[in-house]
Amino acid sequence: MLPPLAPPPEPLRQLLTSNEVDAKDFHQHIRSYNNALAFTFVGANLDTSVAQPGNYTYRLHGELYHRMGSLLPQPGEAPKFAQLYINDPHAELDGRIGNFGDLNRDTLQSLQTMLHACNPYASIYQMAAERLQGGAIELSICLVNDRRTDLRRYNAPTASEVGH
Amino acid sequence: MVIFSASLPYTAYAPLHYVLLFPDGRNGWHDSIPLNGFQWDGFGFIQDDENAIGGRRGFARVTMLQFYAYILQHRISEEWILRAGRLLQQFIVDAYACTEQNCLKFIRENQRQLRCDLYNGLQDALNVGDILGNNIGQKMILLLSFQGGERVMGQLYQDAMARVRKFGKSDLFVTFTCNPKWKEITNALFSRQIAKDRPELVTRVFNLKLDTLLKDIKDGVLGNVIVKIWVIEFQKRGLPHAHILLILNEVSKLRTAKHNDSMVSTEIPDLIRHPEVYETVTSCMVHGPCGLDFLNAQCMEQGKCKKRYPRSFSEETRCDVDGYPEYRCRQTRIFVDPKM
Hints:
The complex is a heterodimer of chains A (164) and B (340).
Chain A (H helix, E strand, L loop, with lengths): L11 H6 L3 H8 L1 H8 L3 E6 L13 E8 L21 H11 L5 H14 L1 H14 L25 H4 L2
Chain B lengths: L9 H8 L20 E3 L4 E3 L16 H8 L14 H24 L7 H10 L23 H18 L4 E6 L5 H6 L10 H20 L6 E10 L5 E9 L8 H7 L11 H10 L15 E2 L2 E2 L12 E2 L5 E2 L14
Antiparallel strand pairs in B: 1-2, 3-5, 4-5, 6-7, 8-9
């Protein structure tokens, strides 16, 4: 049996269910909020020739891929996606707002705090950030699809299981 | 310099990208999730419940498709994932692309086991004239079970044509469109949602209704059906739509105009005698408004309605010159405002 999904932590639950103004705004821009907070980006070779006004079509050539960049941004580039999780929370939020300008700062901040508290991947990046500050020169994060560890139980991975 | 490897296992796809759907970072699909009654012992699956029913061909593993289908069920405790609106739409598209890609990957890596050499000769013969430079590459043969693939579509087409050859041309053409206002859909929506926020719900309701319709047809509401061919298409706004072709047996064939009228009606039904049909026809099946006063209407082309409306009244059904029947449409003096 697959375990049921855990109920969402606050403030996500409230944003998804309530009728408040900020919840409506969140709902309207939910994909931008998700992209602003995601670790990866989805890439695909999109075929725009079939897209017509009114009839939204998503057709891609070749493969759909999920990508993560390097842990730190290339010189001269703004940090994005997972790279943001290495910054301190304030700079992190500024970076997210910089990448997705039209989002509500308070909402995004509360979601970011929530992910820092409950998301194991966010903790790994925090750990990486601490090591970098501690003077680590070469550091990499590997996602290991190791069946022997936790996969039989489908728990959320703990930080040490994912990070090496 | 700090570099991160770019290739991610499937397991991490969903939690790393859809952080708002899986905030706790739980694992996505992987290839060792056992079905109910089985266990994964680190090397293989073992059956720990002797009554356990495996999947197709005795598989003990949850497939990627099953996994995503599981997530998209409505459960009271987990309904929040279905509240995510556009993010849910994106997730479904992404999940489907992953599933299909995984399937194609399997086919690509197992060409030898799938005995594709057998078909390669045939393909070569078919593609003799096919020597354009940009077509050069490794040829992969898709399985006959790959939905939407060239082989399965070709086979279905040949099957349909064989039936028509044997039993003659079709008698009835039935279309069945999903209506986002069906009460089964509207009742299951959460507050502030509209049908397009819940593609899984819309397709599920449509599928149930289509099954019922096909069963009714099989039970003979339209006469004795000997051949039934149908195809489901997805139209604008993602609404599914079925085209059904029926061939009736000798007894039930529509031969006379009167017989035709018992099956097909283009008139506005009587509100008192058939209130439900009246409701459906007036809300879903009235064309327009179009004509010279509404030149911007979708159906207008060069000042004319391309669906040939407004049509003239006709006391009886006739066969038109181009084979289109002109159905009986008597002047009943019932009026409906199409803008309603």
